[in-house]
Amino acid sequence: MEAFFSSTLAVAIAEIGDKTQLLALFLAARFAQKSAIVSGIFVATLLNHFVSAVLGVWIAEWVAPETMKWIVGLSFIAVGLWLLLPDKNDESGGKWLRYGAFGATLILFFLAEVGDKTQIATVLLAAKYQSMFWVVVGSTLGLMLASVPVVYLGEILMKKIPVATVRIIACVLFCILGLLTLMGGGISLG
Q1: Which InterPro entries does this one have (predicted)?
Q2: CA distances in angstroms from 104 to 36, 41, 46, 142, listed in the order given
């Protein structure tokens, strides 16, 4: 269950102010079908994070535990520092909008998550915990917790959430995960 809780918390915090959260706001402003947007976010995230977790578990199986500890620990710290950099909001999604609320959301969210901080975090969490199921469930829930309120409450929430503060908190969380991993005895393979 540690994998589930760590994944949920890490991804939910990292997602606040992320480009996909801004994408959710954009889609909610564009389409009236909020449940279709939420469904698209869920399916895209589930697919993306499943592939990420498979990759993380696979990497951990082929890399020695001590080496994996250093890779994962330093990567968590790198992701934490990366969170301090604001995302570029260059995702207009114009050509995908013709697919409707669900289709546009599915495609745009999947593409936006490729190489995103939360995707990389999912790979790292799966490598660390060797629990693909709980990491996928937790990271998907974390992304949904950060994105669904934006779909329904969008502009009100974006004005009240201090994005810079959230970025700092997320950075600290990932750096702590990195340090705890580095101080631990290695990555559990069982």
Answers
A1: GDT1-like (IPR001727)
A2: 10, 10, 16, 21
What pLDDT shows up at residue 4? Answer: 95
- CA 38 – CA 78 distance, rounded (Å): 30
DSSP conformational letter for 97: G
Query: DSSP per residue over 32-74, as a string?
Result: S-HHHHHHHHHHHHHHHHHHHHHHHHHHHHHS-HHHHHHHHHH
Contacts of 86 by beta carbon, 8 Å cutoff, 6+ apart: 17, 163, 167
pLDDT score at 186? 45
Contacts of 54 (CB under 8 A, 6+ apart): 126, 132
pTM of the predicted protein model = 0.71
Distance in angstroms (rounded) separating the CA atoms of residues 114 and 40: 15
Q: Which residues of 135-158 are buried (b: 16+ CB within 10 A; e: fewer)?
A: bbbbbbbbbbbbbbebbeebeeee
Q: Is 59 exposed, middle or buried (0-12, 13-18, 19+ CB in 10 A)?
A: middle
CA distance 23 to 51: 21
Residue ranges in the chain whose pLDDT is less than 50: 90-91, 186-190
Cα–Cα distances in angstroms (integers) from residue 172 to residues 39, 43, 137, in the given order: 31, 29, 23
